[in-house]
Structures are given as structure tokens and as C-alpha cells.
Amino acid sequence: MAKHLCRAALASALLLLAVGVVGASASSNGMFVIGDGNTSAGSQVTFWGAQWWKDNSLSTGDAPAGFKGYAVDVNLSTCTFTSVKGNSAPPPDGPLPPVIDVLVTSSVTQSGSKISGTVVGVAHVATADGYDSNPGHAGTGSVLGFVPCGTAPDSF
Question: Where are the alpha helices (DSSP H) in the chain?
């Protein structure tokens, strides 16, 4: 457990250097996503997979089945993301680092092949083994901390 906490502290420091303040910069880099009903510390989450829409709770209702949990374009200035349905949004190859930052969303909608979402925060997630970029191999882990969109990442 201490090993994961040290990694979480390192991830927080790297996030501070890279982003500054959540919401103060835009990113074209993709990020994994979890639902806002899954943000309590210790919660087991699925951030990537064929059943993402079933495994994540959103405060505004259900996500479309075509969303697998990876946001292609992220804009933390406007607290939004966009993606595309299915396997068209290729996430990074595995293995993943022991701790990653994921977006937290309250809403995911689909219009044609375009998927859009509202970012309500960023969560630190300790990753579990078994991830693969194929959505049949879910990316899972446990939440270590959460900060709302627009707050300093050292709030973890």
C-alpha cells in the first residue's frame, strides 16, 4: 500500500508540473474516463472496456453503449471532452503505469459517431493488472483521490 501511495504522490507532483491547475489548460492528449458516481476513495472502477456504459454511474443518466471510456480530445479549460464510438478511439497500449489520472464525467452523449462529455473533475486511479487496448480486456483500478474541475491538483 505504501508503494502505491508513494506512486500517487509522484503522480500528483508530475501532474502539477504538467498541468498547473486543473481547468487552466487545454489538452489534445487523450485520457481515460470514469463516471461521477464512482469517485469515492477506494471505489473499484472501470475506466476502459466494452461494458463501460454499464459499469459507470453518471448523475445525469446512462452513457451511450458506444463509449468505451477513452476521451480523444480533452479541454480542461471548458471541462469537456470528445471521443468517437467503439474501437475508433484507440487508448494507449499496455501495460499502464501503476497510478494514472482519469477524467470524471457527469454526462456522455452521442450524435452519430461523435461522443461528447462534461468533465467534473480528475481522479487518481491505482491501476489493476489485465488492461489491454482491446475493449474486451477492461481497464480497472481503485480511486485514490478526486479533485473537481477548476481546482489545483495538489488538492488530492
Answer: 2-19, 52-55
CA distance 145 to 67: 24
Task: Look up cell 471548458; give the residue.
Answer: 78
Phi, psi (degrees; rounded to nearest 5) at 54: -90, -30
Residue numbers in the chain where pLDDT is lower than 70: 1-28, 87, 152-156
Strand partners, 24: none
* Cβ–Cβ under 8 Å, residues 21 and 154: no
pLDDT tens digits, one per residue of 129-140: 999 998 889 999
Phi and psi for 62 in degrees, rounded to 5? -80, 150
Buried b (16+ CB within 10 A) or exposed e, 118-146: bbbbbbbbbbbeebbeebeebbbbebbbb
